[in-house]
Amino acid sequence: MSAYSALENVLKEILQVVKPLPEDWEKRSRVIDELRRVVESVESLRGGWRRLQLIPNARVPILKFESSHQGISCDMSIDNIQGQTKSKILFWISAVDGRFHDMVLLVKEWAKAHDINNPKVGTFNSYSLSLLVIFHFQTCVPAILPPLKDIYPGNIADGLQGERITAERHIAETCAANITRFRQDKFRPVNRSSLSELFVSFLGKFSDISLKASELGICPYTGQWEHIESNMRWLPKTYAILIEDPFEQPANSARAISMSKLIRISEAFQMTRRRLISTNQYEGSLLATLVRPEVSQCIPKAPVQNPTYGRRYQSHPPRPQVHRSIYSTSQAQHQFQNSRVERRSNNTTLQRSILQNRNQGQQIWRPKSHG
C-alpha cells in the first residue's frame, strides 16, 4: 500500500465536496440571468444583492457582491477581454491532464483554510495559485505540462490587437494546435504520480519560497525559475515575490503579497508538508490541515476504534451548502470546474472544442482578483 494512500483517499473525498454539483451550476446560471436583467434594465443592484464592494485598486476594477436569492458571491468586471482570454487558455490546458484541474481545486481550498488566499490582506489571489500549480506541473519530473510559451508564444495583450473576432480565433487555433501537438508526442515521458504525491511535492517545492523569492522569479512562460537580476523587465525589484503572468509579461500576478505575509505563506507550506508526511496521520487530522471546517463537515467520518465496544462509525450532518464563488464575467464558466471534462483524442475534435468555447465567451478561470 502506498505511503500516501490515506492522504489520497482524503483528497478524493475533498474533491467530492469542492467540485460544484449540478444544482450549483443551475444556481449560477440563475445568478447570471439576474445580472443580465439588471444590466439590461440599467437599474441599480438594490434589492436582490448584498455586501456590495468596489475594488478600484485592482488592475481591472472589480465589483464584489452576493446574490440575496442564491447566496452565491460574485466578482464582476466589465469588458475584461484579456482576463477572459487567460481563462480560456487555462481551461484548454486542463485538457492536457485532469490532475491539473483537481490540484487547483485542492490548493485553493487548502490556501483558504490557512487564510493565504486573500490579496486584500497581502496573500495570494486565486490566479497566482493557479499559476503555481502550472509551474509545479512544469517542473516536476517528468514534466506534466510544457512551458506556456509552447502553447501560446506571446502576450495576450499583443495578440488581441486588431479586430477582436479574428484575434480570438487566431489565439484559439494556435493553442489548439500546440496543445494537441504536446498531447500526441509519443516520446514524451509520462508522469504517473498520484494526486497525493503531487500535492506533497507541491508543498515541498514552495516551502522555502520566502528565501527563494529574494533571488528567483517563478516563470510559467518558460517553465523555469529565473534569476531576477538577470531579467531587466523585472527590475527594479519592488515586490516580495514574483510570479510572472505568462500571458501578460512582465506583469507580476503576486504583486499584492507583502513580505510579512510571504513568511507566513512559507510557514504554511512547511507546516502542512510536515503534517502530511507524518506517520501518525488519520482522517480527522488530515482534514483539519487541508480544508476549512465547513468543508470538513461535509465529508463522512471514518470508522473510529473504541477499545470497549469495538468499531463504530461517527455520524455526520447532512451536507450543508459550501460557499463557492462565481465569476460572473461569462456564462460559459460552468464547463471548467465540472469534473467530467471530456478528453479529446485528436486535433480536429480539440480544435472544435476550443473554438466552441471561444464562441461562447468562456470565462471559467478568470482570476478572482488580479490585484
From TrEMBL:
**Where do the segments described as Disordered lie?**
302-323
| Poly(A) RNA polymerase mitochondrial-like central palm domain sequence ranges | 26-91
GO BP annotations of the record are: RNA 3'-end processing
Known Pfam families for this protein? MTPAP-like_central
| A molecular function GO annotation | RNA uridylyltransferase activity
What InterPro entries does the annotation carry? MTPAP-like_central
PANTHER family attached here? Answer: POLY A POLYMERASE CID PAP -RELATED, PROTEIN HESO1
Q: Report the protein name in the record.
A: Poly(A) RNA polymerase mitochondrial-like central palm domain-containing protein
